[in-house]
Amino acid sequence: MPTLVRMDELDVDDVGFGDLPTRGMPIRPAEDAVLINNPSGQFRAIKADNGFEVQKEKGSVFETLYKDGFTPRKPEEFYENLEYNQHHPDSIFVKKLIITMPKAYVHASMSENHLTLTKSAVKEKVEVNAGNYTEILKDYFGLDIKIDRLESAL
């Protein structure tokens, strides 16, 4: 869930998991929207129906990816979902290896099977295997480690 942050104006901020930008997107009327460039494309946040929409440009139109309101939330409202995502055996984050790191020029995500690189909204998939996963970890994520899950699976 993106976070709303008020600096000079109200922005939508995200940690960059998936394809959303890691730079704040000011929430403005559509005609005054600020386009945010990201390796996966152009995004904007617009005011809409007592809330806001995060949109991604596809061709010459903007597609809504996310809608929400301006209801303030307390940290404890997120605890149950965080606990589930981090520890529950049915959580995709527990079942599968997922490593992601957005950078200015590329968004890199790695699973047990593939490295996905997104540059200028174009996705490239590279197979992950026993012979290349440690090099991928170093090159794209700055990690110099062995991952038991990959060692035993590959």
Radius of gyration, CA atoms, in whole angstroms = 18 Å
Helical residue percent? Answer: 10-25%
Count of distinct structural domains? 2
What portion of the residues fall into strands of 2 or more residues?
35-45%
Task: Compute the number of strand runs.
Answer: 11
Overall outline: globular
What's the SSE pattern? EEEEEEEHHEEEEHH
Mean pLDDT: 87
Tally of separate helices: 4
Kindly report how far apart the N and C termini lie.
33 Å
Structural class: alpha+beta
Low-pLDDT segments? none
In this structure, how is the largest beta sheet organized?
A: 7 strands, mixed
Describe this structure in words.
By secondary structure, the protein is of the alpha+beta class. The protein has two domains: 67 residues, no CATH class; 65 residues, no CATH class. Helix content is 18%, strand content 39%. The protein contains four helices and eleven strands. The strands form two sheets. Strands 1, 2, 3, 4, 5, 6 and 7 form a seven-stranded mixed β-sheet that branches. The chain has a four-stranded antiparallel β-sheet with strand order 8-9-10-11, covered by helices on one side. The two termini are 33 Å apart. The mean pLDDT is 87.
